[in-house]
């Protein structure tokens, strides 16, 4: 496959460059900025197809997991090229499929956290002193936003219980990872994503994280009956394992909130295997394994 999106370190300048290049090349891709972070960085979205019957794919929730952002940009490129060239992708006529269906892709929900993970303290701009005061031995492992809040703990799904679990684990304030914030939906990044979902009424959601080659699909009593079968189809297509929420990952996540709020299917896919940040050189190998699953998610 000939990929325009390259396996490079993914910082904000790369984020903006890919976003602008894809929207310039493919006029049917609808660009938008769904919100801005505490440091003013844009949270970019790409939409194509029928927005009234659409799903949402989001990545880059955690700073150290920036390979998920590259994977989603790569998926956007592949979809767009297939439609533009009128070729099949995974045996599917996408021009026809996306005349009825749609997808919105948010490659990087947490651009401030990504910038800190890639460039260290300099990525925190005016919050350098604050970020430094939190303490982090290796900024490559930074997962939170620039205010020390873990975005995937900040959604309003069992949030109070999650904060109690965090306190028991000794996490009671801004941290490089796993601090849920002062209250649910306290962060600009969380607000941007929930606002978009409430406005667009997506029929299902998928969050990309790394790593483990796993798919999560359950949350509480509002999990739709169809979710398990959908999850099995996704897992079979990429040979990932289906797993259940556990421990500090049991509440507060995007897919948890989406299921709770809309009683619609929500999934988390943990891409790749190893230690975060995953090596950029593994991008194409990881992406090739999940492309069909990402497409199936859009079509189901």
Task: Summarize, please.
This protein has helices at 12-25, 67-85, 94-100, 111-119, 128-134, 159-168, 188-200, 226-238, 254-262, 283-299; strands at 30-36, 42-49, 54-58, 88-89, 92-93, 102-106, 205-209, 214-216, 241-243, 266-270. With 300 residues, it is an alpha/beta fold. Strand 8 (214-216), helix 8 and strand 9 (241-243) form a beta-alpha-beta unit.
Task: Explain how this protein is built.
- There is one protein chain.
- The two termini are 25 Å apart.
- The longest helix has 19 residues, at 67-85.
- The strands form 2 sheets. An 8-stranded mixed sheet has the order 1-2-6-3-7-10-8-9, with helices on both faces. It has a two-stranded antiparallel ribbon with strand order 4-5.
- The relative contact order is 0.17.
- The chain has helices spanning 12-25, 67-85, 94-100, 111-119, 128-134, 159-168, 188-200, 226-238, 254-262, 283-299; strands spanning 30-36, 42-49, 54-58, 88-89, 92-93, 102-106, 205-209, 214-216, 241-243, 266-270.
- Strand 1 and strand 2 form a beta hairpin.
- 39% of the residues lie in helices and 15% in strands.
- The chain is α/β, with parallel strands linked by helices.
């Amino acid at each position: 496959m000939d990929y325009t999106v390259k396996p490079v370190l993914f910082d904000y300048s790369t984020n903006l460059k890919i976003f602008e290049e894809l929207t310039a090349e493919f006029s049917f891709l609808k660009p938008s900025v769904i919100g801005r972070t505490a440091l003013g960085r844009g949270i970019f979205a790409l939409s194509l197809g029928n927005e009234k019957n659409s799903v949402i794919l989001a990545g880059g929730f955690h700073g150290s997991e920036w390979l998920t952002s590259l994977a989603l940009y790569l998926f956007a490129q592949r979809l767009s090229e297939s439609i533009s060239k009128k070729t099949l992708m995974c045996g599917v006529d996408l021009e026809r499929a996306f005349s009825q269906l749609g997808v919105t892709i948010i490659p990087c929900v947490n651009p401030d956290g990504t910038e800190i993970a890639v460039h260290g303290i300099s990525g925190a701009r005016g919050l350098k002193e604050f970020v430094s005061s939190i303490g982090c031995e290796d900024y490559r492992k930074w997962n939170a936003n620039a205010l020390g809040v873990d975005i995937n703990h900040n959604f309003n799904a069992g949030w109070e219980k999650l904060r109690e679990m965090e306190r028991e684990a000794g996490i009671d304030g801004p941290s490089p990872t796993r601090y849920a914030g002062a209250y649910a939906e306290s962060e600009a990044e969380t607000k941007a994503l929930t606002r978009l979902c409430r406005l667009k009424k997506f029929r299902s959601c998928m969050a990309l994280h790394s790593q483990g080659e796993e798919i999560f699909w359950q949350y509480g009593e509002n999990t739709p009956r169809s979710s398990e079968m959908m999850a099995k189809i996704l897992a079979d297509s990429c040979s990932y394992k289906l797993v259940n929420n556990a421990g500090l990952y049991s509440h507060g996540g995007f897919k948890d909130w989406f299921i709770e709020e809309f009683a619609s299917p929500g999934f988390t896919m943990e891409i790749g295997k190893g230690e975060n940040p995953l090596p950029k050189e593994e991008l194409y190998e990881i992406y090739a394994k999940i492309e069909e699953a990402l497409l199936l998610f859009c079509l189901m």
